[in-house]
Amino acid sequence: MTFLHDTFVRDHLPPRDQWPRFLLAGRRRARLNAASELLDGAVRKFGGDRIAFHTSSGSWTYGQVLERANRIAAVLVDDLKLVPGNRVLLRAPNCPEVVACLFAVLKAGGVVVPTMPLLKAAELAPLLDQAKIQFALCDERLSDELITASDQARIDTRICTFGAGPRSRHQELDTLADRKPASFRNFDTGADDPALILFTSGTTGAPKAAVHGHQDLLAVTECFPKWVLKPTGCDVFVGSPPIAFAYGLGGQVLFPLRFGASTVLLEDGRPGRVSEAIRQHSASILFGTPTGYRKMLADDFHRDLKSLRLCVSAGESLSSATYHQWHEATGLGIVDGIGTTELLHIFISAPPGQVRPGATGRTVPGYQACVLDSQGHMPPPGEEGRLAVCGPTGCRYLADPRQAEYVQNGWNLTGDIVAVDHDGYFWYRGRVDDIVVTSGYKVAAPAVEHLLLQHDAVQQCAVVGQADPVRGQILKAFIVVAPRWVASAELGQKLQHFVKSRLAPFKYPRIVRFVAELPVTATGKIQRFKLQSMDESHCFEHSSEVSKP
To answer: How many structural domains are present in the chain?
Structure first.
């Protein structure tokens, strides 16, 4: 039973027969507000004076986060007129204020829609339209792209800004919140009521909205962290992933609060800043990506990290070479893990002492995972197939026919190709779609292709991933130039900047190669698998990586 006034999200969930099989331990509560458990409950259990977040400008206690969240929740209800079930987009770098906004939305019964601060207007507009965003809480410094996106999407999104920066023509969240009381009565949400929408991209490049309920936010804190991290109130978390990513949200917000720990929140997650923060705050648990670990090694940022007791990696496959290099340089191993936006967090990993370099790990308690062949059968150990998972969380897309592709016979099919050995360890082999994972970010190649085709110089194009020792993969664009244009290094650089100025920086092709034609099937579909085998004789010219983002 739901008491939501706005049932848009619930009404646009997939049919029940397309839902995955959920594994639920113990007796399930009918009524639950995740903010009541994760924030209000943390203050009751650990005390309001305990440090929750460290920043470059100071620290926030558990009590301060709760008070701020209560005040913002009152703004949402009293001033913005939010009703339970409304969607609220968040746009900000990692900071305590955006965490308070996240919990404020949950407290008011709204649905949180976090977005990455790097996204440009052209990327934000489809999200506003798909989720029918009514409200947005935005860092003042990032408001211009959001305002443009709202205009492009023709969605009447009410934007309220916060943080340091020039005053906006929109209502200021800081001013409104300061006038509100420090207490707030949380809305009585159902455990299954929508709480969170996280956007991802599929093979077509169109964004997919993964919906998670209040119970999901708690469920993930009972699985991976309890089995692998074993955190205590003495731990200090730190990491580079944006909290708009499921990986960052769990590792830097949900897990620390659930166990009374603290987090160093970094607006700038570059390796040098992460390394500096570890030393400054004596961080003990690091959440990173293989790319991040390789950069820390290459740039000599790995020294004097003696406070660390655990390093976690996800977002892309962790190679055994990276594991051994990090271990030799620091004396620390790396715990690998695989999770998806659709399942919210890591479901395959291994605790310290059980790690096998090169393997992702074993199924996290609370989940079930297996390998399925093309016929839906489990092949013998060692043979490759599709990764299938089910557990306390699972895929429920918002109004998306691709639900039927992701969920089959109750299993979540993640799109990963894996093999499992006799001991139950999963070994990652690759992706089944056109997603390129670069520096831990998943980029849909077709989305970059669609933008390149908007340039007058591009007649045809195809974008693929190329192995890279630092970033895991980089994007490579194959271009057939339009008539009256000449392939050149200068043109390649112009195309790179064309993409970089319109999409998030990590989405631009670091290699541009000009070709006479693209390999296609009889029906005109590009055969991407043939592109990587094209030798230099097929190419007019290519321009390699230019400026770094």
So the answer is: 2
pTM exceeds 0.90, yes or no:
no
**Using CA atoms, how far apart are residues 501 and 497, in angstroms rounded to an integer?**
6
Mean pLDDT of 16-28: 86
Last residue of one domain, picked from the residues 213, 237, 268: 213
Q: pLDDT by residue (tens digit) across 207-235?
A: 899 999 999 999 999 999 999 999 999 99
Do residues 61 and 49 make contact, with C-beta atoms less than 8 angstroms apart? yes
Q: Is the dihedral of CA 268, 234, 255, 66 positive or negative?
A: negative
Nearest Cα residue to 223 out of 370, 355, 392:
392
Q: Tell me, what CATH number does 206's domain have?
A: 3.40.50.12780
Cα dist. 21→89, 287, 395 in Å? 29, 29, 10
Contact 242, 93 (CB under 8 A): yes
Neighbours of 464 (CB within 10 A): 20
DSSP string across 291-339: HHHHHHHHTT--SS-TT--EEEE-SSPPPHHHHHHHHHHHS---EEEEE
Residue that finishes a domain, picked among 192, 213, 234? 213
In this structure, is residue 448 part of a structural domain?
A: yes
Enter the tokens of residue 287.
């959440």
Query: Is residue 18 exposed (0-12), middle (13-18) or buried (19+ Cβ within 10 Å)?
Result: middle
Residues 217, 223, 229, 235, CA torsion sign: positive
